[in-house]
Amino acid sequence: MESQARSGLQPYVVAVGTVAAVVGVKLLLNPLIGRDTPFLLLFAPVMAAAWRGGLSGGLFATGLSALAATWFFLPPQGVFSIGPQQAIQIAVFLVEGWLIASLCATVQQGRAALEGRVHERTQDLSEANQALQAEIVERKRVEAALQQSAAEINDLYNQAPCGYHSLDAEGVFTRINDTELAWLGYERDELVGKRRFADLLTPGSLATFHENFPRFKEQGAVWGLEFEMIRRNGSAFWVLLNAAALRDAAGGYVESRSTLFDISARKQSEERLAQLGAIIDSSEDAIIGKTVEGVITSWNRGAERLYGYAAEEVVGRHISILVLPERPDEAPYILGRIRRGEPVEHYETVRVRKDGSKVHVSLTISPIRNSAGEITGASTIGRDITDRVLAGEKLQSYARELERSNLELQQFASVASHDLQEPLRKIRAYGDVLREDCYDALGAEGRDSLDLIQNAAARMQALIDGLLLLSRVSTKAQPFSRVDLEEVAQEVLADLELRLQETGGRVEIGELPIVEADPTQVRQLLQNLIANALKFRREDEPPRVRIHSERLNGQDDSVARGPGSEEVWRIMVQDNGIGFEEKYLDRIFNPFQRLHSRTAYEGTGIGLAICRRIVERHGGTITARSAPGEGATFIVTLPARRPQERTHE
């Protein structure tokens, strides 16, 4: 309120001040300008007051100026007495002052209005500028957001796990993402605008493309097409393609947008499954799939051959159709184990064919699990073992027959050791008496007959002794123990010392192993082999025998090994004797078989048969390598530990 009052008095204060100032100045200048223009300077206060206070201020200043001029400048000075002439001057001044005040007030009002409008316009412009700045900021924010979104979309486009590309009407690439470029091994500028999608397809897939691309442009979309694409390095891979067409306002084809998925792994899995299916289908074994309830789900050709049913006859039926009626618990037992996750291996049983005949089978049944590890079924591999079972039965029959023959052999050995030897001893004894008492009286013919009788009796004794030795390999065997073969060989050489001296022979004993064996029998084995080497010597050269060994580390499957042992030894007895043809190899190990006449080389032909019987009892093998005139090498292969299944103690 106070400020408004001061603002309202301001024009009047200005009028009084300017009039007083002008009067003072005029009084000072009167000596210079004279008194003829008393109102000239007083227009200044009028204009100043009118400019500051409008028309009222200007009129106030005009009236005050007229009073001041009358008082100070019009004669008579100092009084307000005026004549007609002064009155006219004052009237003219008042009119001019009113005009000047009106003009100044009008100008001031126009100026104020103009300033108001300028202020309003400026305010509007300021607000518009602020709005524009805000819009610019918002637009920049939106542009930044759009750029970020575009970058994110482009990043998603390029980094997506699937391939994206676009093709024009000619099938040329117009756009392609980084993923598909990485698959193909190309740079973007090598494909976009230069290469066609069809250029990157194998011949088989190219035919698929040419068949479907025109249809695609017409229909606007394709789904699930599979193509084999060629990488830059020449390798190929499979993709699954879905595509949609973009059209112009007239409906014409513009370009395609395609999504591709690398299905190489799936294709490889399908190929492996197909190969596995072919293997299963071509397998000689019966391979059957079934649920945990026993319902048959798959049936290969091997199953058709083994059981006589076609696949369509059994799929969906229960596995019990193959089970013998007298074994009703067999299928539930097997299925129970499968439900518990227990595989069934080499389960031997009998199954029923479609025609009612029986077949012996060996079954291996394994649980089938899904990705969650749950048991969903079972696979059964069945193998026909009928021949093996029948062969086993025959083998058992042979074993029984062999056991009977061995029993008869033992009985014969008993007879030979008692019943045969007694008369033989009498023949030899009486022959000796005749030789001592009546030899000279017999005459030449009688003496020859006596010699023949005694020689025949000696051979008969040797044969009986050989048979006894052969039979005792099994019937009089000793327990196995750890035997140092090198020590045994040295003991044998001591026993053969006289023979070595007679023949001038030499035996070299190499490193020999320690094995679990019958000490007496391995001594008999080495003695027979060394004695044979000394006996079948060449006339022009003293016998040389070398005994050595090598470790096989279980590489010989023909040798029966002891439990937990893979150690196998090969012992070789090598000589420089007369040798033999290897076509007689099987013959020399049979009892009483000789390659030379009795007159050329003594013996009964049973020594090597005893060697073979000893080696077989120890779970090993014996063979030989030789050639006439080049000596022979007898090879004995023995396990280091006792083979339980081949001992007959």
For the record, the count of structural domains works out to 5
Distance between the termini: 142 Å
Shape: rod-shaped
* Mean pLDDT rating: 81
What is this structure's SSE topology?
Elements (H helix, E strand, L loop, with lengths): L1 H32 L9 H30 L11 H76 L3 E6 L4 E4 L1 H7 L3 H4 L11 H17 L1 E10 L5 E12 L5 E10 L1 H19 L3 E6 L4 E4 L1 H7 L3 H4 L15 H10 L4 E9 L5 E12 L5 E10 L1 H53 L4 H33 L5 E4 H11 L1 H7 L2 E4 L4 E4 L1 H17 L8 E8 L16 E8 L9 H4 L18 H11 L3 E6 L5 E8 L10
Parallel strand pairs: 12-14
Antiparallel strand pairs: 1-2, 1-5, 3-4, 4-5, 6-7, 6-10, 8-9, 9-10, 11-13, 14-15, 15-17, 16-17
Helix pairs in contact: 1-2, 2-3, 11-12, 12-17, 13-15, 15-17
Could you give a short description of this structure?
Helices cover 53% and strands 19% of the residues. With 649 residues, it is an alpha+beta fold. The model is unreliable at 645-649 (pLDDT under 50).
Folded structure, characterized:
This protein is of the alpha+beta class and 649 residues long. Helix 12 packs parallel to helix 17 and helix 15 runs antiparallel to helix 17. The protein has a 5-stranded antiparallel β-sheet, with helices on both faces. It has a 5-stranded antiparallel β-sheet with strand order 7-6-10-9-8, sandwiched between helices. The protein has a 5-stranded mixed β-sheet with strand order 12-14-15-17-16. The termini are far apart. Helices cover 53% and strands 19% of the residues. It folds into 5 domains: 123 residues, no CATH class; 109 residues, PAS domain (Beta-Lactamase); 102 residues, PAS domain (Beta-Lactamase, 2-Layer Sandwich); 77 residues; 170 residues, 2-Layer Sandwich (Heat Shock Protein 90).
